[in-house]
């Protein structure tokens, strides 16, 4: 930029930062933000909103609040979007009591709590298993004239699933449809996940077909849920059919897809195929998780292939992944000559 002799306005920087934020390029966004401040281009509330939202989504609560303090010191007035981002960050920590300070501050400044913030709070409570607290918030929201939307229903359904209350979750989602609220991709994925956990793949596949007919596009979470269910039951043919559908639709196989497929192959005793999938994922720059290593080490150990299992253990540690109890348990077979 300096070589071209171009001076950017706050509007240009905003567009550049917004593009980086859209693709979650935190370092690039921060560099642009620092650059505009160095060039004395005054960041407005929209720029701060982008940066705070970005750090909130990355769970960097400290940095998000530092930016908030900075904008207040500059005399800028935080809006509902900024408070919503901070509330999201706090909810992600699980410390729900910390949100009350922000809510009180919003009310003291006359900033209305919108449906997005209510949903964020209810999601935070549901993730902590505090369904009753979330329901109290829903009552408050509806008294303010804000009706539950598809996100509200899905948040509660996922909260019920977390408590293993799958029937109640299904009932809630079906009642949503009866009330005229159309399900979205997240709602359908939640239903599909419930059915696959119940082993009801016929209904899960029916939901998949229905969502596509209604114009809702299945995403990685949707397909991964079904693939994982099939793999855990050794139904590899069905799993690979879904893998092909993912690829045909332009979806990129991620670490969850590969790990599920590897686990399925290990269950079927096809360790060499699991190893091939492991090499394929690395070749495609998909970074293995600790579960990926655990699945493959366990499979190799049960086959008595201890050298390969411990080789993966070393590779995992060199990659900066700290072993946990499951990792050590996966290596037990190697230590006993392949016995389990």
Q: How is the quaternary structure best described?
A: single chain
**Share of residues in helices:** over 70%
> What is the makeup of the main sheet?
none
Q: What is the annotated CATH architecture of the domain at 253-340?
A: Alpha Horseshoe
Q: What low-confidence regions span 5 or more consecutive residues with pLDDT below 50?
A: 1-5
* Backbone structural class: mainly alpha
Reading off the top of the CATH hierarchy, the class of the domain at 253-340 is best stated as: Mainly Alpha
Strand and helix order? HHHHHHHHHHHHHHHHHHHH
Global outline: globular
Please, what is the average pLDDT? 92
CATH topology of the domain at 253-340: Serine Threonine Protein Phosphatase 5, Tetratricopeptide repeat
Hey, roughly how much beta strand do the residues contain?
Answer: under 5%
Radius of gyration: 24 Å
C-alpha termini separation: 62 Å
* Name of the CATH homologous superfamily of the domain at 253-340: Tetratricopeptide repeat domain
User: Count of helices?
Assistant: 20
Count the beta strands. 0
């Amino acid at each position: 930029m300096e070589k071209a002799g171009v001076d950017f306005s706050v509007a240009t920087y905003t567009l550049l930062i917004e593009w980086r934020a859209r693709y979650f390029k935190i370092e690039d966004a921060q560099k642009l933000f620092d650059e505009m401040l160095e060039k004395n281009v005054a960041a407005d509330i929209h720029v701060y909103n982008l940066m705070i939202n970005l750090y909130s989504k990355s769970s960097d609560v400290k940095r998000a609040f530092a930016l908030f303090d900075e904008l207040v010191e500059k005399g800028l007035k935080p809006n509902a979007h900024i408070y919503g981002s901070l509330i999201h960050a706090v909810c992600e920590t699980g410390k729900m009591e910390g949100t009350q300070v922000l809510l009180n501050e919003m009310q003291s400044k006359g900033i209305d709590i919108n449906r997005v913030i209510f949903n964020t709070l209810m999601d935070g409570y549901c993730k902590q298993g505090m369904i009753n607290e979330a329901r109290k918030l829903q009552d408050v929201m509806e008294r303010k004239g804000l009706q539950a939307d598809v996100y509200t229903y899905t948040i509660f359904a996922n909260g019920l699933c977390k408590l293993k209350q799958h029937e109640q979750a299904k009932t809630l989602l079906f009642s949503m449809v009866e009330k005229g609220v159309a399900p979205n991709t997240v709602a359908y994925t939640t239903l599909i996940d419930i059915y696959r956990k119940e082993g009801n793949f016929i209904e899960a596949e029916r939901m998949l077909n229905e969502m596509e007919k209604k114009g809702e596009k299945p995403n990685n979470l949707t397909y991964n849920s079904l693939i994982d269910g099939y793999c855990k039951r050794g139904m590899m043919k069905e799993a690979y059919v879904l893998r092909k559908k993912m690829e045909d639709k332009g979806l990129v196989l991620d670490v969850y897809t590969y790990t599920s497929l590897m686990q399925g192959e290990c269950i079927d005793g096809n360790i060499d195929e699991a190893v091939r999938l492991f090499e394929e994922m690395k070749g495609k720059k998909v970074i293995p998780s600790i579960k990926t290593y655990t699945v493959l080490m366990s499979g190799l150990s049960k086959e008595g292939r201890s050298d390969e299992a411990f080789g993966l253990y070393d590779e995992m540690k060199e990659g900066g992944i700290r072993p946990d109890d499951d990792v050590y348990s996966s290596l037990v077979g190697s230590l006993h000559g392949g016995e389990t």
